[in-house]
Write a structure and sequence with these properties.
The protein is an alpha/beta fold. The protein is built from eleven helices and 19 strands. Strands 1-13-12-11-14-9-10 form a seven-stranded mixed β-sheet, sandwiched between helices. The longest helix has 16 residues.
């Protein structure tokens, strides 16, 4: 029987436009792009040139610091563009897909007969190892790390996040194979939510009962096996586990994932099967009203990345499905909104953590259509316990943020920076009356700490 961990702190934000459990057919793409920025901490080096032919599974770029870590092409075709930015930074590699796909053959493998080293070698050869992240630092890991444990969270509870239980249907075999493979490397934990019907062998299943962000893998690590200085754990997104399972079961790299298309601006919220790197225009075109400004987000509204508007160029690498993206959401921008009497109105349709608006009278089931406005300016941090109320981890969030801003590395280590990732502070950023960009601050702090310890 799975163990249960109950969390008392957190916040559920009930947004309108949740994806309905049916799949929409998306037009097959012709151009695909793999962006190194999807793999945090990787220094990319292109290993293909424009005009080269590749198969699905062939390497497009590698990690310059660890050349054995390759990143596989999602499709076969011709490399049409090696996109670079300032100082020749590699932004993406684009492949014009063949009408008939060819796959590199890595051979079917029985994971039950493999050891941890062979699992690593197989993932490295196929260009999938980079989909494994690590704590500390919340970056893509490298093969020289030896994790004390591996964590997979199948609970997605961010606003408008996709339902992994729905995504898993028909792919249970691949998911189990991926979990078994990871268990050969180190003890593996699978975190699920209360009420989720997900079973697995060869791993320890832990049920989390509580509000968002109970599904954050960092929160789960904190409650199961916290990371101390000098220790490393691997964290794997559940869809990546399916990628791994497909590799061992078929011998091929198949980066198809089920994406939730959601948000209050989406006419028909649904799910769609898409390949990593596929143009999202085929999904979002005509799916929302254009009579007012909207924000298209790669990911959920709290942790996702805004996508460049169409008029700024479809060639932008941000308009291709990210390697770790489980949802595409559309919310009102809010910059063209006129409100009578502004903040003085009772606002029955606006969400508030406190009871500043009368909307709390409608209960927790009311759905909200929140826009992207900050509604205020950045100001000095108020030590009010706001962060702690939505951060179910055994750390002092406000003091940690202050230590990062001050650049006090010793204090950061004492306050638990090795245990956190930027997404753990997404809700704290949402409720923060000081309007600080907490996720950016944490990311910068982790990058500086990683550089100091390298």
């Amino acid at each position: 029987m799975a163990s249960i961990i109950k969390l008392s702190r957190g916040l559920d934000i009930n947004l309108a436009g949740k994806a309905q459990k049916y799949k929409s057919t998306v037009k097959a793409g012709t151009v695909f792009a793999l962006a190194p920025e999807c793999f945090e901490g990787v220094k990319p080096k292109a290993v293909v040139r424009e005009g080269d032919r590749v198969k699905a599974g062939d390497a497009l770029f590698i990690n310059k610091d660890f050349p054995e870590v390759k990143f596989a092409s999602p499709v076969s075709g011709t490399v049409s563009l090696v996109e670079r930015g300032d100082r020749r930074k590699l932004l993406s590699i684009r492949v014009e897909a063949d009408a008939r796909q060819e796959f590199a053959d890595f051979g079917i493998k029985d994971v039950n007969g493999l050891d941890g080293g062979q699992v690593k070698a197989a993932l490295l050869e196929a260009g999938l190892f980079g989909y494994i992240n690590q704590l500390p630092y919340a970056v893509s890991t490298n093969p020289q790390t030896s994790p004390k444990a591996i964590f997979v969270s199948a609970l997605r509870d961010m606003p408008l996040a996709g339902d992994f239980e729905y995504e898993l249907k028909g792919q249970e075999k691949d998911f189990q194979t991926g979990l078994t493979a990871l268990s050969k490397v180190a003890k593996t934990y699978l975190g699920i939510g209360k009420g989720q019907d997900i079973s697995a062998k060869d791993v320890e299943v832990v049920t989390f009962a509580g509000k968002c962000p109970a599904g954050n893998v960092g929160v789960q690590v904190n409650h199961i096996d916290p990371v101390n200085k000098g220790e490393t754990v691997w964290t794997v997104e559940p869809t990546a586990v399916i990628f791994f399972g497909r590799l061992f079961n078929t011998g091929k790299v198949n980066l198809t994932r089920t994406v939730a298309f959601a948000g209050p601006e989406v006419k028909n919220p649904c799910y769609a099967d898409m390949l990593v790197g596929q143009e999202i225009e085929s999904l979002v075109e005509g799916a929302y009203d254009t009579d007012h400004n909207v924000r298209i987000i790669m990911g959920n509204p709290l942790t996702g990345t805004p996508i460049a508007p169409k008029e700024e160029g479809l060639t932008s690498h941000t308009r291709f499905l990210g390697a770790h993206t489980s949802e595409i959401t559309i919310i009102p921008e809010g910059n063209d909104t006129d409100e009578l009497a502004g903040w003085i109105m009772p606002r029955l349709s606006q969400f508030s953590v406190s009871r500043s608006y009368f909307s709390w009278l409608f209960g927790k089931k009311k759905e909200y259509s929140l826009d992207a406005r900050i509604k205020g300016g950045e100001r000095h941090m108020i030590m009010s316990g706001e962060y702690d109320s939505v951060l179910p981890m055994d750390i002092y969030g406000e003091y940690l943020i202050k230590a990062i801003i001050a650049g006090d590395i010793d204090k950061q280590e004492q306050l638990g920076i090795y245990e956190v990732s930027p997404e753990d502070f997404a809700l704290a950023e949402f409720v923060d009356s000081s309007k600080l960009e907490l996720q950016r601050i944490v990311r910068e702090g982790l990058d500086i700490l990683r550089k100091e310890n390298s």
